[in-house]
């Protein structure tokens, strides 16, 4: 049956839940195929995807390495109950553990599950089992997922309003020096003011965080995105996390890095925390480990937290955990990122990407922040007249790029963009780590066209 777009949207309106995020585009957008860094709609309009499945398809659509891997796995072991082991499940665990051991000298183990939010839940289970304490410190602006537990540590009230807050959390400001929570962005200090505010929390019992006499904290776990994701792709100062970890280690608070969105070379390194000279007690990963082709996620945890003596059989489980299809794809990801030629391609591409992003504030007075690291960029946009955040303009920009094709090399083309940030006025870019010079040139031209259509009307 060959239905046109209107027929499909009518059926969607009748049969599909409207509770997901697809309804944020009006009308909803339907795509029919994907290849490389492009999506194609029913009219064969070509869209340069600058968010790549929310940073899941880091290595491109229809990547032939993955296609061959999937066919081979289908012909051998397409599925398997999670109570049994398969080769790629063991070898993928070994890859991740050996990376942490060789680079940080820390032994650990890997626990697989499905989806980033489920991995966050399992990381919290591991933390609570180890600390015997259910209090969690997290960041303002954080996003960790939509399960009950992950929603509790994500910052938006709309995530917890309907379902309740099932975890006791204490929220601290993310170190955004472009929009400091303490209004200190234009002042000079020998140390980071936000660090001193955190240090103060442990100086007296009257702040409700720490009992000086028993030397116990009400909150014994800290979960964090090294780079703020849904909060706008914000990058902290290089020494922030090192200073913060000094405080957390002093008070025996374990650390969980949420690398679901920024892991696997999104920021130019295997893990985004590696840009900040730290090593957490646990790492939550997902998305790009399977290039968005299978819902594979997991937790790496140090031995002190996940040893079989304290994390026993049946502690947590799901039907598709360690699925042979997902772990085989994950092994293919490691084949890519262990190839020096592939790494060189990523590095060359990221340098060209940075040049394009770094020049934008000089070209557009409406841009108040343009940060880039690897293939992740966050751009804050304001109204030029009053310098206030411009979420309406950002929304218009995204919809124009999606619904008003531009003629590029005589072919109708558009852009896939997404927004986030404190005021929903930040453009978040996460192109393929293999985006070519020609494709970046295309992005440069299209982005300027759509920016000009919104801000220079």
Task: Explain how this protein is built.
- The chain has 457 residues and is α/β, with parallel strands linked by helices.
- The chain contains 14 helices and 18 strands.
- It has helices at 5-15, 52-55, 64-76, 87-104, 116-131, 148-153, 157-160, 193-200, 240-250, 303-306, 324-337, 340-363, 391-403, 437-455; strands at 31-35, 38-41, 46-49, 108-113, 135-139, 168-172, 210-211, 216-217, 221-224, 254-258, 282-285, 297-302, 367-373, 376-381, 406-408, 411-416, 419-420, 426-429.
- The protein has a 7-stranded mixed beta sheet with strand order 4-12-11-10-9-5-6, sandwiched between helices. The protein has a 5-stranded mixed beta sheet with strand order 1-2-3-16-15, sandwiched between helices.
In short:
By secondary structure, this protein is α/β, with parallel strands linked by helices.
**Shape, please?**
globular
Within the largest sheet, what's the order of strands?
Answer: 4-12-11-10-9-5-6
On the 0 to 100 scale, the average pLDDT is: 95
Spatial gap, N to C terminus: 43 Å
- Low-confidence stretches are none
Please give the oligomerization state of what you see: single chain
- Briefly note the structural class of the backbone: alpha/beta
Individual helix count: 14
How many strands in all? 18
Beta-strand percentage range: 15-25%
Report the biggest beta sheet as strand number plus sense, adding barrel if it closes: 7 strands, mixed
How much helix, percentage-wise, in residues?
Answer: 25-40%
Radius of gyration: 22 Å
